[in-house]
Every structure is written in C-alpha cells, then in structure tokens.
Design goal:
The relative contact order is 0.14. It is globular and about 50 Å long. The protein has twelve helices and eight strands. The chain has one domain: Aldolase class I (TIM Barrel), CATH 3.20.20.70. By secondary structure, the protein is an alpha/beta fold. It is 44% helix and 14% strand. An eight-stranded parallel β-barrel has the order 1-2-3-4-5-6-7-8, surrounded by five helices. It binds 1,3-dihydroxyacetonephosphate (13P). 1,3-dihydroxyacetonephosphate (13P) binds next to β8.
C-alpha cells in the first residue's frame, strides 16, 4: 500500500477563478500549508486552462501539483476548441482529469472517449485522474455498482498494470455534486469505494490495483470531511466549493490529515 500511505487532497475550481484569483488562491494555500510535509500528503489543484501557465509559475510543484480539467486525445489536428497534451505539457501540468461528471453529463462525453483520453494522458506521462460516478436514476434502479464497474473497465481499457501505477481515481456520484447535490453518506461512499477497489484489483492485480488512490468527491464540506476520511476505503477527498477559499481548504486539510494517519496506523497494527 505504498501510494495510499499518504492522503490525497485536491480541488477542481471548475469554471471559476480568473488567472489573478487562481494565483492568489495558490499562493495563499501554499503559504498556509508550508509546514506540512509533502511526504504525508499529495496536495493538488485543477484550475481553468487559461490560468495554467501563471498558476504553475506561482507555486512550486513540490508543494502543489497542478492539473487540467480535460484534454483532447490527439496531439494536434482539426479539433477546434480542444487542448492537446503537448500544450498541457508546455504549461507544466502533472495531472489530467478525465471524465468529470460535468463533462460526462453536461457535455455528453462517453466512456469510450474517456478511455482515449486516459490512454493519451498516459502516453504523455501525465497522471490521469479518472472520475467515475452514477446518476441518481442509476442509483435508484440499483445499478450503481454495474455502472461504476463499466466506467472503470472501459475507462482503463488497454491500460497496462505498469501504467496503472500512476493513475488516480475519484468517485463522484453525480447526485452529490454541486449546489444541488446531496452528499453521499460515509457508509454509502465507503461501500462504493470498496466496489471500486475490488474492480481495480481484479483489473490490475491485488498489488497494483490495490494501491491506486481512490478519492471521494461530491459536496465534501467541513462537517462531513471528518466522517468520510475515517472510512477504510477512502484515500482522499476531491473538493469543489468548500475548498475554493484557501483558508477553508487549509482548515479541512488540518482536520482530516491526523484522522487519516490514525486510520492508517490502526490498519498497519492489525
Ligand atoms: P462540490 O464539492 O462543489 O460538490 O464539487 C465536487 C467536484 O465536482 C469536484 O470535482
């Protein structure tokens, strides 16, 4: 469980924050979290495309990893409006988020398209952060597990176990995300995280699949962060609104980090 020894904490700023606001946010977050060793935590931020170069220059990557919210799956071509892996490499990105629920549901991206992006991100040595999650309707029909297994199996189709050593997964139930979202209970989230863990282990073997970090996202807030991070299968939190103010994000980080470490210590003792 090498990779999962540390906690994963990140935010996606969606279509919010100008370059000036993103840079100010990153600088403040960096300053507030300076004393926390990065051996204990993987801290990352996924801002808007136009902010990326300035964002990367504003804080060291050893403190805060940065990623893009989406990526085209070709290096170049007649794809108006798309951003290529070469452009993201030039902007100094480390992570590429693939399949965020808003991409899948607002922009109608398919599992097969997410797969092309995952493969392309890996070819260009990015860490793909594959987001998966069922809709409320799929949950009500009792097919959440099947949907997630499908999203994972299609999303990671053609990915080798060696490549899987760099991927991250976020479970973000569609019904839990955003202003109208209802946060998943910690029990439900943990149950689904176990399904995801088992699917990854089945796909990449117990050692490599068992070590892929799986983060929970969807209306994480200062009240529920504590309960979620105590759950055995949750390796980190992927936060929207509650992390967009650096002081609030810092206070969530300081609440969950010791709880996470206590959990890992207890696990190691059994
Ligand atoms: P909220 O925390 O605002 O629900 O957003 C979560 C999310 O979409 C992170 O990618």
């Amino acid at each position: 469980m090498e990779r999962r020894k540390k906690i994963y904490l990140g935010t996606n700023t969606k279509m919010y924050k100008t370059t000036e606001q993103t840079v100010a946010f990153l600088k403040r977050l960096n300053e507030l979290t300076q004393d926390i060793s990065r051996d204990r935590m993987e801290l990352f931020v996924i801002p808007s495309y136009t902010t990326l170069t300035a964002a990367r220059e504003s804080v060291p990557r050893e403190s805060i990893l940065l990623g893009a919210q989406n990526m085209g799956w070709e290096e170049q071509g007649q794809f108006t409006g798309e951003i290529s892996p070469l452009m993201l490499r030039e902007a100094g990105m480390d992570i590429v988020m693939v399949g965020h629920s808003e991409r899948r549901h607002v922009f109608r991206e398919t599992d097969a398209e997410e797969n092309k992006k995952v493969l392309c991100a890996l070819q260009h040595a990015f860490r793909p952060l594959l987001c998966v999650g069922e809709t409320a309707e799929e949950k009500d029909f009792g097919i959440a597990e099947e949907v997630l297994r499908t999203q994972l199996k299609v999303g990671f189709h053609g990915v080798t176990p060696e490549q899987a050593k760099t991927v991250w997964v976020a479970y973000e139930p569609v019904w839990a995300i955003g202003v109208n979202g209802v946060p998943a209970s910690k029990e439900y989230a943990d149950h689904i995280h176990k399904v995801i863990r088992d699917t990854l282990a089945e796909r990449f073997g117990a050692e490599i699949g068992g070590d892929i970090p799986v983060l929970y996202g969807g209306s994480v807030n200062p009240q529920n962060a504590e309960g979620l991070i105590r759950m055995p299968y949750i390796d980190g939190l992927f936060i929207g609104r509650s992390a967009w103010d650096a002081d609030n994000f810092n206070s969530i980080i300081r609440t969950v980090l010791p709880l996470f470490e206590e959990k890992r210590k207890k696990e190691a003792a059994v």
